[in-house]
Design a protein that fits this description.
two-stranded parallel ribbon, 218 residues, alpha/beta, 25% strand
């Protein structure tokens, strides 16, 4: 598998030598990153010339809090409980890009998988729709628009897919509150469902501290 990925990696680098292109292999998976301006051209080439005939998944990613650490603690807990009261410290610079679209592709002919990532550089985030290349992208792009607010130029019917009618905001964005902005309930007097400001009080989870007392002595 590693040899196959290395070969694919080399062929992709040679084929896309004329565009800004990065590629890396991690955890037996090959990921390439390209500018959004080249997404249609690259996707068409990997389908026609490299055999990636199936789009398995398309998703949005919000990198706004990527690389943040809210506190420095002991080894047992420094990989968990990523939220805290203290402000986080970003480790990647202030000009980091926020929204990305990730494409997961499958080549049945060569038994290979490929991940393509493209960062949206505009506000609001915009990426060309890949429906002309893989028709299965239709609902995936609607989901990414619904949850992240990513616009897909050329999509024939870009509207919300999973949230309620009249929903405001994009719930998978990192700045969207976990409890949301409104809650709904049935009002027996009005005999209909009504929306009200959310009544749940936000709270911050505290890390669980594991103490090395005599119960865990070796």
């Amino acid at each position: 598998m590693a040899t196959s990925l290395q070969t694919l990696h080399s062929k992709l680098q040679e084929r896309f030598a004329n565009i800004p292109f990065t590629a890396n292999i991690a955890l037996n998976e090959l990921t390439i990153e390209i500018p959004t301006a080249h997404i249609l051209n690259v996707c068409e080439i990997v389908r026609d010339e490299f055999g990636f005939s199936q789009l398995i998944d398309l998703c949005g990613v919000d990198y706004s809090t990527y690389g943040q650490a809210d506190w420095d603690t002991q080894k047992a807990t420094n990989t968990g409980f990523s939220r805290a009261i203290s402000p986080g410290i970003f480790k990647g610079g202030e000009d980091k890009k926020r929204f990305a679209v990730v494409y997961h592709l499958l080549s049945i002919e060569h038994n290979q998988r490929l991940r393509i990532r493209a960062f949206a550089e505009t506000d609001p985030p915009r990426v060309d729709s890949v429906i002309p290349i893989w028709n299965s992208a239709n609902w995936f792009e609607r989901e990414a628009f619904d949850f992240f607010g990513i616009l897909f130029d050329g999509h024939p019917d870009l509207r919300r897919l999973l949230t309620d009618y009249g929903f405001i905001g994009h719930p998978f964005r990192k700045d969207f509150p976990l409890s949301g902005h409104v809650e709904m309930r049935y009002d027996p007097d009005k005999k209909r469902v009504i929306y009200e400001p959310v009544s749940i009080q936000p709270r911050t989870l505290s890390p669980k501290v594991i103490r090395q007392d005599n119960r865990y002595a070796t």
